[in-house]
Structure formats: structure tokens, C-alpha cells
Write a structure and sequence with these properties.
The protein is α/β, with parallel strands linked by helices. The protein is 42% helix and 23% strand. The chain is built from 6 helices and 7 strands. Strands 1, 2, 3, 4, 5, 6 and 7 form a 7-stranded mixed sheet that branches. Helix 1 packs across helix 6. The longest helix has 19 residues. The N terminus is likely disordered.
Length: 172
Amino acid sequence: MDDMVHLDRTKKLLIVYHSMTGGTRQMVEAAARGAASEPAVHVRLLPALEAQAADLLEADGYIFGTPENLAAIAGLMKDFFDRTYYPALDQISGRPYATLICAGSDGHNVARQVERVATGWRLKAIADPLIVCTDAQTPEAILAPKVIGSDDLKRCEELGAALAAGMSIGMF
């Protein structure tokens, strides 16, 4: 028995995000809290500007968080995907992911953009994209700091917990 190798069975969940006005940050922090409730999962929250391909390769699952900017994915999230897509291609297939979107009006185009990247990587969506719409439509409202409501933060937390639970039992 002393010669047995003890393997680290901790799964790693990487949460990559960008947030300009704080809404997306609140959402991913809630998801991280939910995921952290699972002791067999190590959660790492990383701004898109800092995230690298090596971070993707080390993780067992992902949450991507982005605001909706001009009906599209945030530029720094796009930059993250651009920088990491080919270095991670064919190396992360089958891993689970979820998407959090802080939208001003709709968010569905953003969801499609993230889904296209995830499809190329052959990731497995564990839930529909979680979109929180702030209804910010004027320049002042769009640029103002956001406060995400407790019900929406609870949904984010539940999504993080569900992903982590599924990862810990090998469901995905």
C-alpha cells in the first residue's frame, strides 16, 4: 500500500471574463462562489486580458463571461479567443463549458459568437447561455456601473455549482 501513487483528483474550472462596467464581473464572481461549494473543484477566475492558452489546457472545464458590446462579444474576450484558439485546438475537445452574458438589450448574438468558438474547440455546453439584460440603451446607461439583481446572481451561482458538481462526479 505504501507504494501506491496518490493522484490529485481535483478538477480545475477556469472562468475567463471581461467586465467594463462591473456587471459581468458580478456574474462570474457569483458563478465562482457556486462552483467553490464543490470541494473537488478548484476555481480560477481570470480576466480575459491575462488568460493564455496554457490556462485553457490546464483546466477541465470553463465558464466564459462577457458583456454585450455593440451586439457582439466584448473586444477583450474576442482577443482572448483569437490568441488561444489555435494553440488549444484539438487539445480540449469534450470539456464542459457555460456562458454568462451581461447584455444591454438582447445578448443572443453574443451567445452565438461564443458558441461558434466552443463548437470549433468541440466543447460541450452544459446549459443554455445565461443572459442578464440590463436594458441599458442610452450612452449614459451603457457606460454606468451595473448592479446585477440578487435573482440573477443566484442563477449565476447555481450555474457555477451545477458545472462544478457535474465535473466532480465525472458527468462531464
